[in-house]
Amino acid sequence: AEEVHGFFVSDRASPILFEKLPLAGVAFPPSLETGIGQVIARDGRVTESDLEPFLDVPRSEIAKALSEGEPASGRTRNPVAGLARVLAATRVSHRIARDLYDRERPDLLALYLEGTDEVGHLFAPDAPPKLDCTPEADVARYGRVVDAYYALVDRLLGQWMRRAREDGATLVVSSDHGFKWGKDRPCGFSAASWATAAFWHRPEGVIAAWGGVAERGRGLIPGGSQIPSLGKASILDVAPTVLALLGLPADVRMPGRVVSEGFRDLPALPRKDLFSRTAVRRVAAVPVTAEKANEYAMKLIALGYLSPSETRPLAASGGDRPGPTEGAWNNLGVYLRDTRGDFRGAQAAFDKSLALRPDYYSALFNRAVLERRRGDAKAAEEWFFRSVGALGGDPAPAVVGWARDYEKDGNEAAARSLLAKGSHSYPQNEEIARALAMALFRARDCRSGAAALSRFEATTADPSTLNVLALLETCLENRAEVVRLLRRSLELKPDQPEVAKSLRRAEGQ
C-alpha cells in the first residue's frame, strides 16, 4: 500500500490474485490490517449455494470444483473456481470500501471492482449470442454467468447511489475500457490468455455521474461520438474531473480536461506543477515466499495481465519512486499514438520505456504497431519479432494474430512475409506453419504452401493440419493424396461433416 492522506488498501487484499498471503503491508495505515483480514475471512469464502445462481451446473460438480481449486494454467481447467475467485474479490472489495466510507467519511473514495473485466475474460466466449467456436455444452453451463454477475454489480451500485443521495455526494462510475460481447468477439482467440486477452477489449467504455452536482438529464458519451446536448468524454478526463469535484487543481501535464458540461458549477482551477514535487512511498511489507510470488505471477498470466517474461517481483518497499515507470511511459506512448496521432512523441515515450527495461514486451509490441501505422512494414516486422522473443511461451497467437491484421487491411504480401519469418524463426511451431500454408494457398502458390506444412504431416495430432494439406493437394490436383489425408483426418476426429463430404467427393462418390 502507498502512504496517503487517508487510507489505502492494495490489491493484495483481493482474492482474485492473492490467497493466504501475509497481510503486512496490505493497507495504510497498518492498523487496518486486522479488520481487512476479518473481511477476507468472512466475505471471501464462497460456497456452492453462492455460485448456483450463476451456473447451470450440478451442485455436486460445483462442490468438486471448489475443492480442487483453480490451477495456474487458466480458465479452461476449472472455470467454476475462477468464478468463485471473482465473486469473492467483488464481495471483499465492496465490503472494505463500504466499511471505510461509513467510518471515515472521506472526501474521496475510489473503489475498483476488477470482476467486471475478469468475468469477461473468463466467460465472454460462453455468453449469448453463441459463437461458432464455443461448444454448446459450455454455453449451456456458463451462458448466464456474465448477466448474473453484472446484475450483482448493479445491486452494489444501487447501494452507493443510495449512500450518495443520503450524503449529498457525487457518484462517478467509469470503466477503463469496454469489452466485446456480440458477434465482434474474436472467435478462436482465448479471452483468458496473456497473448490474446487484449483482442477482447474494445476502446469505447462508459462514464456516468449521479447525485451531488451532477446535472440530471445530461449524458457523458465516451470516445469520439457527439450527440446534441450531451458531452463527450475520454478516459483521460476522469482524473481532472474528479480533482475539480474535490476543489483541487490538476497537474500541468495531465492531458485530460474537466468535463464541466456534465455538472453544475464545476470550474477548472488553474493547473499547477504538482507531479515533480510529489513523492510516492510504500509501507513496509513482509517478503513473500518464492512459491507464493510464483502463484501470484501465474494468476496474472492466466488473466492476461502479464506475459511469462514479465514475472519480475515488485521493487523493494519503501523510498521515493520519482518519475514515470516503464509502464507509464508505455501507456503515454499508446495515448500519443492512438489519440493524438503524435508518432514522434509516441516513439520518444516508447524509447524511454525501453531504456528503463529493454525486454519490456508491451513497449516492444507497441513500437511495432507504431511502425505499422507509419507504413514501414519492414521496421514493424523487426520490432514485432523482438516483442515475440521477449514475450516467451507460444509465439503462434501473436504471430497469427498480427498476420490476420495485415490481411484485414488488404496487405496479404505483408502477412505472408510475417508468417514466413515466423515459420523460419520457430520451425517447430505447427500453428504458424499452418497459417503460412493457408496464406500461400490464397495466393495460389500451393506448392510452396505444401512444402511449408508437409514436415508436420507424419507427427501431427491436429486434423486441421491434414485438412489444410488436403486443400493444397486439391489445388495441385493430386486426388490420391487428398483421399489419404482426409481419411487420416477423420481417423483423428470422426465428427467433421464437411471433411467427410469432401472425402466422398474425392473418392468419386
Describe the structure.
It is globular, with a radius of gyration of 26 Å. It starts with 7 loop residues before the first strand and ends with a helix. The model is unreliable at 72-76, 224-230 and 313-322 (pLDDT under 50). The strands form four sheets. Strands 1-2 form a two-stranded antiparallel ribbon. The protein has helices spanning 33-43, 48-51, 59-68, 79-104, 115-123, 136-142, 145-167, 238-245, 290-302, 326-340, 343-356, 361-374, 377-391, 396-408, 412-425, 430-442, 446-453, 463-475, 479-492, 497-506; strands at 8-9, 27-28, 171-174, 178-179, 201-202, 207-210, 220-222, 231-233. It is mainly alpha-helical. Helix content is 50%, strand content 4%.
Give the overall form.
globular
Strand arrangement within the widest β-sheet reads 1-2
**What proportion of the residues is helical, as a percent range?**
40-55%
- Note the beta-strand portion: under 5%
Structural class: mainly alpha
Catalogue the unreliable spans.
72-76, 224-230, 313-322
* Element-by-element helix/strand order: EEHHHHHHHEEEEEEHHHHHHHHHHHHH
Count of DSSP strands:
8
